[in-house]
Specification:
about 35% strand, about 70 residues, 2 helices, alpha+beta
Length: about 70
């Protein structure tokens, strides 16, 4: 899911909406350009229903793979 150009809290809120519709164990890839999105998604994935599988950065894009755990 591409949330590039969106500011806080929209990237996390949109991701949460998509994850809610996904099945347990499925992984969502999120692409963001918000500079503090790493901190925001790390905090979001502290919730028991989500797990950060992987994260990365390339130039000004931030990538997150989030698994729905519950």
């Amino acid at each position: 899911m591409d949330v590039s150009g969106l500011n806080c809290p929209l990237p996390v809120l949109r991701s949460k909406t998509v994850l809610a519709a996904m099945g347990k164990g499925q992984v969502l890839k999120v692409v963001s350009t918000q500079s503090d999105s790493g901190r925001e998604f790390a905090a979001f994935c502290c919730l028991p229903e989500f797990e950060m599988v992987k994260s990365g950065r390339k130039m000004k894009q931030y990538f997150f793979w989030i698994r729905k755990a519950i």
